[in-house]
Amino acid sequence: MRRLALLALTLAGCGEETADGPTALLDASVACTEGASSCRGAVHVSCRGGRFVDVETCAGACVPGGGCTQCPPDQPTFCDGADVVACGGDGARGDVLETCAAGCAAGRCVDDCAPGSELIYAVDVDRNLLAFDPRDEALRPIGRIDCPAGRATPFSMAVDRGGRAWVLYSSGHIYRVDTADASCAPTDFAPGQHGFELFGMAFVADAPGRPEETLYIAGGAAEHIGAARLGRVDTASLRVTDIGAMREEAYGAELTGNGNGELFAYVPGRESSVVRLDKRDAREARRWSLPPLSAQPAGWAFAHWGGRYFIFISTQTARGLADSRVLRFDPESGETVVAIEDVGRRIVGAGVSTCAPVVSNF
Fold it and tell me: Per residue in 229-251, is it b (16+ CB within 10 Å) or e — as a string?
């Protein structure tokens, strides 16, 4: 398994403190060594004539002995408006890691995201719920979903900001599953609305950085799901609105969204693709070609995280031999690599909330 580097959130450095003591106690009247440099809060001070005098007020942070830096080097992240930004050990500004929907404080978002809602969640055909952390590319079991679905099996999944998984079963019914313990509750969703019998699904932010989100679906008749239409579900009334027709494919599309308000689809097959969709009318904004699959798709799921796309794909040969992998696709480089070589289970649904980061440097 190829492992990812940890996010810049794990990078931390320590500012050097001079013998003049902590900055909070520094006073202009304190005697000092000529030329010594230190800080008084965010003010860079220097010793002149035996006393500290102000040199400049730092726009970022002040490091005793080092002067002004772009950010506090002893903190791995800092806030720039609504952005969570990485800070290097030398006090240099790093990448924007996340744009907060409801504000940033102490280097992290303060919003309505439930604990764990930044992870990808997956469900297999045997009703097992799993958590997938892209930072270490590990699948961890949570529990078995015990929904009152009879013989029906999970078909697709989406996850909202509250940490609830919306799981579509092969019967066309949707159940809500708690991602913390896999407990399940039925919904009043009526199957087959506007011809949407089976479909892929994903939550997408209504606008970049905003907490409001919409559940989108892509599918149609169970016997011809490749002739898909895009729709959305009102999560209060559970009514479906038809948006428009998508390109006809050999297999059904799975969806994923992000906190930037973008919607994407994955379509497996000999000509596997990732597609960015216009959520207003279902038109394609861009299509990326992926390496073709060597056997027939038998189960697939799709999730965006930190600017990459994770594809859970199971294939089956004519002899019945099965293969299940997790692929990672980087749209910037166009590279597709194997993240997990052998999953050992057929994953049929994956979901990630709009709380997940939209950029990262792993």
Answer: bbbbbebeeeebeebeebbebeb
Query: Are 109 and 117 in contact, with CB atoms under 8 Å apart?
Result: no
Residue type, 144: R
pLDDT tens digits, 151-173: 999 999 999 998 999 999 999 99
Copy the structure tokens of residue 113.
Answer: 């995201």
What is the biggest distance separating any 2 CA atoms in the chain, rounded to whole angstroms?
87
What domains can you pick out in the chain, each with its CATH number?
A: 8-109 (no CATH), 120-352 (2.120.10.30)
Q: Give 174's strand partners.
A: 168
What is the signed CA dihedral for 19, 24, 28, 34, rounded to 10 degrees?
20
User: The tokens of 301 are what?
Assistant: 């799921």
Q: Are 8 and 361 in contact (CB under 8 A)?
A: yes
Q: For residues 162 and 114, is the Cβ–Cβ distance under 8 A?
A: yes
Residues 255, 243 contacting (CB under 8 angstroms): no
Q: DSSP labels for 95-130?
A: EEEEE-SS-EETTEE-SSPPTTTTSEEEEETT-EEE
What is the tens place of the pLDDT at every residue in 231-275?
999 999 999 999 999 999 999 999 999 999 999 999 999 889 999
Rounded CA Rg of the chain: 25
Distances (CA, A) of 184 to 58, 126, 147, 156, 353: 52, 15, 5, 15, 18
Structure tokens at 180: 């913390």
The residue to which tokens 């609305």 are assigned: 193
**What are the two backbone dihedrals, phi and then psi, of residue 10, each rounded to the nearest 5 degrees?**
-85, -10
Closest CA to 201 of 236, 246, 156: 156
